[in-house]
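Methods: example folding runs. The two proteins below were folded one after another, and each record is reproduced exactly as written to the output file, sequence line first and structure-token line second.
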Amino acid sequence: MKVVRVFFLLSLFLLGLGAGLWLFFPWNQAAQALFDETARHLERQGVEMTALEVSGRGGLRPLFLARGLSLSHPFLKVNAALVEGRLDPLSSILSRSLAVDLAVGPGDLILLQGHRASWNAGRLLLKARPRSVDVFDVDLSGPLSVKGAFSFDPTSSALTRASLDIGAPAELDPVLTGLRALLPIKKEGEGRWKVTRP
């Protein structure tokens, strides 16, 4: 009986210690470290990532925020007023990945020759592993809209699987047509495009 009582008290102590460490973890520093590491990885792929402000908040599902986020590549630039990433610990454990729910505020995409398209808001679920990144439930709304899912290799950035429905202004038609050399994209109708890779 004493053994059971000692085990119970020890379990409570460890649980309390773990909860305390989780709640008082320096989430701001963790958010900045994660952002910096992601920026370094993207830089190796030829993409520059910057933000006006990066912060983090603790809780059962920690929240990471990036305000004034910008991704720049020689062929395009992406700007978002706010990106919120909420860590999902349970899903991360069950899927053996880093599972994050992402919410994206208003933003725009600037392509070659100054072609531009904007969106109002968006959400997606990201599950990252060392050899693959899976993106589910993509729902970007506005003049530029994207719905579906895709996966890519984080080392090469190669698209490995995709099923995406894209809505875009007519002025982007020449640019999207040109992407056929790089992506399995085809036009489905006026302002509607489809990216498919089994």
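Second run, written to the same file directly after the first:
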Amino acid sequence: MRKLGRKARERTDVQLAEREQAVLQATEFDWEAIRPELSDPDEQQLLMEAVEAATARNESVGQVVERLEHLGEKGIRVAEFLALRLGRL
């Protein structure tokens, strides 16, 4: 019984690692391409605040995806569906 459980766990680890790699590849981004050319400190501050707000939203989405993944295969499918609908993948 333990041997079957270990094999199932190993298979699941491999599947999740493959999905994680796919997500990482799908979310690579060229930050230099969008580097702002701002010299005004007020504009820089506004940009930083916008980036911080966007980061907070992305972290919230990531937390939801993580919780869905803990639900198993159906949760992963739901998380992938939501990510695609939200334009994350």
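Comment on the second run: The two ends are 37 Å apart (CA to CA).
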